Amino acid sequence: MTRLALIAHDEKKPDLIEFVHEHEQRLTGCELIGTGTTGKRINEETGLEVERMESGPLGGDMMIGAEVAKGELDGVIFLRDPLRAQPHEPDITALLRICDVHDTPLATNLASAACLIECV
Ligand SMILES: O=C(CO)COP(=O)(O)O
């Protein structure tokens, strides 16, 4: 089964929730993990179930990075907020890097997320 990570910064969470609603049929067939608050909101606001890691600033991005490093994720959808600095920027950079190291599909905006879920 396809295993995907779903992550969004606060300003992008509404976009991700809408994306999940739009693509619910496709995502129902996937195993989903996410950072803490993102996962909580998807669990509460959509019909899908996300396994929750820690919140991003508390290490959640690194936990997802570890899954990538273990080869246990088929793709990462990470709607970053490009207009605000994050306190855990080094963790975010590390997650993006480890996706490149392992050639794991990574989408950081809605258009690329739509492409990603069609091909993983
Ligand atoms: O900060 C995040 C990703 O860098 C997301 O974390 P939350 O889903 O806990 O808000």
Descriptive key words:
120 residues; Rossmann fold; 6 helices; binds 1,3-dihydroxyacetonephosphate; EC 4.2.3.3; lyase; MGS-like_dom
Describe this entry's structure for a reader.
The chain has one domain (29-119): Rossmann fold. 48% of the residues lie in helices and 17% in strands. The protein contains 6 helices and 5 strands. The protein has helices at residues 13-22, 24-28, 36-45, 60-69, 89-101, 110-119, and strands at 3-8, 31-34, 50-52, 75-79, 106-107. Strands 3-2-1-4-5 form a 5-stranded parallel β-sheet, with helices on both faces. Helix 4 packs parallel to helix 5. It is globular, with a radius of gyration of 13 Å. 1,3-dihydroxyacetonephosphate binds at residues 7, 9, 35-38, 55-57, 60-61, 92. This is Methylglyoxal synthase. Residues 1-120 form the MGS-like domain. Its EC number is 4.2.3.3.
List the helices and strands and how they pair.
Blueprint: E1 3-8, H1 13-22, H2 24-28, E2 31-34, H3 36-45, E3 50-52, H4 60-69, E4 75-79, H5 89-101, E5 106-107, H6 110-119
Parallel strand pairs: 1-2, 1-4, 2-3, 4-5
Helix pairs in contact: 4-5
Bound molecules: 1,3-dihydroxyacetonephosphate.
The site of 1,3-dihydroxyacetonephosphate has 12 residues, from helix 3 and helix 4.
In short:
With 120 residues, the chain is α/β, with parallel strands linked by helices. The protein is built from six helices and five strands; from the N terminus they run E-H-H-E-H-E-H-E-H-E-H. Helix 5 links the parallel strand 4 and strand 5 (106-107).
SSE order: EHHEHEHEHEH
How many DSSP helices?
6
CATH topology: Rossmann fold
Distance between the termini: 10 Å
How would you name the CATH homologous superfamily? Methylglyoxal synthase-like domain
Main sheet? 5 strands, parallel
> What is the count of β-strands?
5
- Characterize the overall form: globular
Low-confidence stretches: none
So, CATH architecture? 3-Layer(aba) Sandwich
Strand arrangement across the biggest beta sheet: 3-2-1-4-5
Could you say how many structural domains there are in total?
Answer: 1
Q: Work out the strand percent.
A: 15-25%
